[in-house]
Structures are given as C-alpha cells and as structure tokens.
Amino acid sequence: MALRSDWLQTKLRAGEELIHSTRLHSYFFYPPILFLLLGLDFWWFLIPGALMMGYYLYQFFSNHFVITNQRVMFKKGLFYIRVKEFDLEDITDINSIQNYADRLFGSGSILLIGKTFPTEKISNISKPDVFRDALRSQL
Predict the structure, then answer these.
(1) pLDDT in tens, 64-116
(2) pTM higher than the cut 0.85
(3) Contact 106, 126 (CB under 8 A)
(4) C-alpha distances out from residue 27 to 7, 66, 79, Å
(5) What is the rounded CA–CA span in Å between residue 138 and residue 79?
C-alpha cells in the first residue's frame, strides 16, 4: 500500500516510480492510549496521556520512509522537513532487526549499509521485512 503525500510528489525525479512507502508502526500509540484509559479512573493520568498522544501523533505523521526505483528517502518533520536520500547504487546491504516483541507486533528496525555513507538505522518501522524485501528487489 502506497502512502501518497505532497512532499513525495515534488521530490520524484523524471522516470522515478514509487515502489514502497511506510511510516512508524502504530504500536507507538499504546503508551498514551494506556495513560488515557487510566485517566478515566485516575484523572492525573489524563494530562501526561494527552501530552504523550500529541507527541506520538507528531512522530507518526512526520516520519515517512519511501523506496523508489532510483533511491531510498526518509522524511522527518511536518513544518521543518528534513529529507535524507540514498541512491540505490550506493547501498551495499540492508538488514532488518526484530526482537520477539517486534515480531509479535509486526515492527522492527532497518539497517542500511552503504559505500558512501555510514550505516543508517531506521527504528520502529512498520513491517520491516516487507520494506527490506522491496528494497532488495531494487538492488
């Protein structure tokens, strides 16, 4: 499933196609939801729960990870947008890391190993094995 956004449409080069895109995993929201539910009985949990939910919503919607037929892009930010781009020919290997809890929830981390850049780690990504396989199919 491709996630479309305005920033992505402006970043695509001529002849570049979107292969795969994803965001942070939704289990990211479990702590604030727990605090908000506890706030139904204990009111002092509502404020931290609301603050955590705001922070996690910002993190969820401000991080976007994209694979195209020419490069990999990571976008972070809603107002001040930072985009990291790695050309596919510069990537030598890709690894996914999942512990037991990550496998249970379908999340994990991705390690990109490159010729011209240091190892790049993406944490808490949704379905890292799908992301890894989509990227490997382009290498």
Answers:
(1) 889 988 899 988 888 888 888 888 888 888 988 998 988 888 889 999 888 88
(2) no
(3) yes
(4) 25, 20, 24
(5) 31
Among candidate residues 60, 85, 80, the one with its CA nearest the CA of residue 8: 85
The amino acid occupying position 95 is N
Q: Which residues pair with 72 in a beta bridge?
A: 67, 86
pLDDT score of 2: 46
Contact 107, 133 (CB under 8 A): no
In the β-sheet with 120-126, what is the strand arrangement from edge to edge? 91-97, 107-114, 120-126
Residue 91, judged by CB atoms within 10 A of its CB (0-12, 13-18, 19+), counts as buried
Q: Which amino acid is present at 46?
A: L
Cα distance between residue 129 and residue 14, in whole Å: 28
Chain mean pLDDT for the chain: 84
Per DSSP, helices labelled H in 12-138 are 30-38, 46-62, 100-105, 128-138
Rounded Cα distance, 107 and 97, in Å:
9
